């Protein structure tokens, strides 16, 4: 009845707490440096794992993360659960209808960007297995097939994130890339599932293998047709007759777990079943945004960190770091993926600039490569040093994606309101009573911070204000001006308990005043910033929440938690 | 490196999927019958456990839920994790400021309703341990102390839910009960934590025990003062500078896990640490509703079912069901808790009616008793048959709470709009073009369903409509009438793509028309129903979402998912 004694339970909770806490902390730090969170999460594992903690305080490392005993078993079980749920959520993001809509171009990009790296990987894996870090007794064909898949796969979540960050997601280019990545995902995971089936020692014999492959394809086909239809019919019933959102949430997790159990049982890895179940579930327009977000947030911020930090725990990243191998894998991966995607995009009729943008987008490997590599490591197909090389390659290809596309498309960094807010440019209690005084007071703060002439700023803003008053209603005002010589936008915020008359259409006084100064040469910025402010304050109680802030940090917290997405 | 092979992993995922799926399903079924979800969740475990599946298909039971081996270890670990997170969320619900506000009355209710059952339980446990199912070699004092706590504890979450369901939560009576239950919770868990410390075999010696107790009190005191202050300071920083809501979510879970690990390490059970951490976190007004709900929903609908179904898996509820013992425990529990609470309420100056309402509210034991019982069973203090008796007592005291209070306060069941919607009273496409036609069409449907005279209904509604038009804006209209002889309200819904002129203040046509017929003798019902409809449709896009529905189920799903809480 009792498998964990009090001390083991305490260690389990401590280890989980440290994993989640450190992974989230370093994940946030990575994001402050504009890097993906997964980089930080992985580093948390590197610090807690054999690479750092294992060197500095080996007894602590063994105490927290023993290699044997019930604690090791529980951590492995939870880590499997985490990755199954992660793939379920990844599946939800796949929008099959997009693929049909995009048609020819995306199909061609998908085919070329999957097939060319696959063949290149297959050839290299077959011709130079030892140099690439094949495990001694692993089957050469399986190793070559694994390397082929590792080269061919793209990471849909990373690509989607990069495109969203650059406001490219809803463009034609974005849709071609996303739908190609979806196809790549589906094909890649199916092929990989089959390879895992091939290496399953329990299978043995050709008959068993073909049975596994047959069952896998059957599962995917049934789930995406009949299963999808059934889910689509079931969701309204669940929403109408069960607790909301608990009913749908429980259904989604159950579906993912049972799908995962099924594919694991037929000899394919569990994650494939969860992923396909996620795709089938995400295809229903009845799945509400709220359910999607609930699952996404809990899985991304609690389970995923456990898994990705867990990767760092597995391997000593310093002793297994083999620079020539890392370089080889990185060059091979970039060369074959870029050439494949660029050729595919040319074949699909895209412009030269767009071809390269597609190339760098499809090149991002992200979390998917980590999962793939870990499974191959666990199955004894690859050596630890190849695993480390794959991890580095996955991170670097993801990191370079955004900046390279921005460079190629000559896009500027999008302007996020929150990036411009700062304590120096915030006044909790405006002295001003009139509109003119408010403009003056805020202009002086802006002038001081950005080294401008205060009177010139005031006059520019006031001139604009006299033309049309800038009270936008909902108790917010947005006085603004475009200034020659300014390089970056300046946003000053002042709060006023009493309120200031800004001649708003709804007749209300302004309690929150944003002064927005933008460079003369870029008229779009001011519109972007004003639009995002007015969207934020359209929410009921927004001004009340902002006025409750006692200082800048609380003000920023209120602004941020009002924003549906990071801005 | 490898602790779970493919088959064990498949079994783990299958077992978890079945546990969550069955528990949610039976939990929903329990709620359809107006019973608490935990009853259904527990029954799911009874079906999958030794009681049913173990009898009908023992080999399946052993396959799914083996008692030894890695699968048993993982399930135990996840189950511990689930209960830790559950107590963290339970702690969030505790609002310490309430207790100070309520002052004298609630303090007196809390003292009497905790102390009297505690002393009665202590006496009975000491005087007749064998009849009550003490485990043979358990320490008599510890057994008596355990029984005392089991009698004294109340279940804050159940009580809060009962009061909310009856719209009593925000009343004086409700606040007295809730704040007394909060005090009871704090004292009860502290005492229980100390008892668990006493029975910790590793502790041994009086010095160690007093050290454990000292550390426990120190932890609680520090966490609720310094810890609370630090958390309150940290939350705005997290909200301002980390990913929202991921940053706060990760922080909350990490805090709960580390608190749990600490108390487990000092010899007190983990759940105490998580609970106190939850109280400290929930006390900050910076904790946003969204974070609370995210945690609450994921924990209540994914983790809690695993734990509560897991309880059913532990014991054979049929062979261990001992009717005399169950009766004895139930009578003892009700007698001492009711008398304690009623005396306390009298002492606090409440009316006789309110005294008994307080009594039956405090009597609800709910999930807390299950957790307590399970820990005692695991620690070898009680026999399985006492455990079964405690489970039955916990469920029955929770089940009787709501109906008894309603009876005592002579409250009628609150009217929930969703309960009156039905396929027979729904028309997807109204034929009507004018207001008069719409009233006629809907009245005919109402008349048919409720066996009334169609013309009389039409005239009654039209008479009302002529006085003041019932278009309430936001494209919704609420024609209505009070009819003599009607026993229950009748609500008919019609949708109109084209829209019907109902003379709304915002000038928009009505696309959703609710015809509300209510009994003449109860004028409040109509106001209640109208208020909840207009609240629902104040949400942006509400009408669009409703109009997307193709039939009744999709309509009901849209209505339900628009509602912040079940209505």
Automatic annotation (TrEMBL), chains A, B:
Keyword list, A-Z: Ion transport, Membrane, Transmembrane, Transmembrane helix, Transport
Could you name the Gene Ontology cellular component terms for this entry?
A: membrane
Stored Pfam families: Na_H_Exchanger, PTS_EIIA_2
Example GO biological process: proton transmembrane transport
Name where it mostly resides.
Answer: membrane
Residues that span the membrane, as ranges: 6-26, 38-57, 77-100, 107-129, 141-163, 175-196, 208-231, 243-262, 268-287, 294-313, 325-344, 356-375, 387-409
Q: How does it sit in the membrane?
A: Multi-pass membrane protein
Q: Where is the PTS EIIA type-2 domain?
A: 419-562
According to the UniProt entry, its GO molecular function terms are: antiporter activity
Q: Where in the cell is it found?
A: Membrane
User: What is this protein's record name?
Assistant: Cation:proton antiporter
High-level lineage: Bacteria, Pseudomonadati, Planctomycetota, Planctomycetia, Planctomycetales
């Amino acid at each position: 009845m009792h498998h964990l004694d009090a001390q083991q339970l305490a260690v389990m909770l401590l280890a989980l707490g440290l994993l989640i806490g450190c992974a989230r902390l370093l994940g946030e730090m990575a994001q402050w440096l504009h890097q993906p969170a997964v980089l930080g999460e992985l580093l948390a594992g590197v610090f807690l794992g054999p690479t750092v903690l294992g060197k500095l305080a080996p007894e602590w490392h063994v105490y927290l993360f023993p290699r044997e005993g019930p604690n090791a078993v529980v951590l492995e079980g939870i880590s499997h659960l985490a990755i199954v749920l992660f793939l379920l959520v990844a599946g939800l993001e796949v929008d099959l209808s997009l693929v049909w809509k995009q048609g020819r171009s995306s199909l061609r990009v998908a085919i070329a960007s999957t097939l060319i790296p696959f063949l290149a990987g297959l050839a290299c894996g077959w011709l130079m297995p030892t140099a690439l870090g094949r495990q001694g007794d692993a089957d050469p064909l399986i190793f070559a097939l694994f390397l082929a898949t590792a080269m061919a796969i793209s990471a849909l979540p990373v690509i989607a994130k990069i495109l969203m960050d650059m406001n490219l997601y809803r463009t034609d280019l974005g849709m071609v890339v996303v739908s190609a990545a979806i196809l790549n995902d589906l094909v890649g995971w199916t092929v990989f599932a089959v390879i895992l089936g091939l290496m399953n020692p329990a299978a043995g014999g050709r008959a068993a293998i073909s049975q596994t492959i047959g069952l896998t394809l059957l599962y995917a086909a049934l789930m995406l047709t009949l299963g999808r239809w059934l889910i689509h019919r079931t969701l309204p019933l669940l929403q109408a007759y069960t607790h909301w959102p608990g009913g749908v949430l429980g259904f989604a997790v159950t579906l993912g777990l049972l799908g995962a159990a099924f594919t694991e049982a037929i000899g394919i890895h569990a994650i494939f079943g969860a992923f396909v179940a996620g795709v089938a579930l995400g295809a229903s327009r009845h799945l509400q945004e709220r359910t999607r977000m609930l699952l996404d947030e809990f899985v991304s911020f609690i389970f995923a960190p456990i898994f990705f930090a867990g990767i760092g725990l597995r391997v000593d990243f310093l002793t297994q770091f083999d620079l020539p191998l890392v370089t080889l894998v990185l060059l091979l991966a970039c060369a074959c993926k870029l050439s494949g995607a660029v050729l595919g995009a040319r074949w699909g009729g895209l412009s030269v600039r767009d071809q390269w943008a597609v190339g760098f987008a499809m090149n991002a490997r992200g979390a998917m490569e980590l999962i793939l590599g870990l499974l191959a490591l666990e199955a004894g197909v690859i050596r630890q040093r190849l695993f480390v090389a794959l991890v580095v390659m996955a991170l670097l290809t993801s990191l370079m994606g955004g900046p390279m596309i921005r460079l190629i498309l000559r896009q500027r960094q999008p302007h996020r309101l929150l990036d411009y807010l700062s304590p120096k440019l915030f006044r909790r209690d405006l002295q001003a009573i009139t509109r003119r005084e408010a403009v003056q007071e805020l202009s002086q703060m802006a002038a001081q911070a950005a080294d401008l002439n205060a009177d010139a700023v005031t006059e520019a803003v006031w001139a604009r204000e006299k033309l049309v008053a800038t009270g936008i209603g909902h108790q917010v005002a947005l006085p603004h001006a475009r200034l020659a010589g300014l390089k970056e936008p300046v946003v000053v915020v002042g709060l006023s308990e009493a309120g200031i008359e800004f001649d708003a259409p709804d007749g209300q006084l302004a309690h929150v005043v944003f002064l927005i100064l933008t460079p003369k040469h870029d008229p779009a910025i001011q519109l972007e910033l004003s639009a995002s402010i007015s969207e934020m304050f359209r929410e009921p109680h927004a001004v009340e929440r902002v006025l409750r802030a006692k200082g800048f940090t609380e003000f920023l917290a209120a602004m941020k938690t009002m924003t549906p997405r990071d801005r």
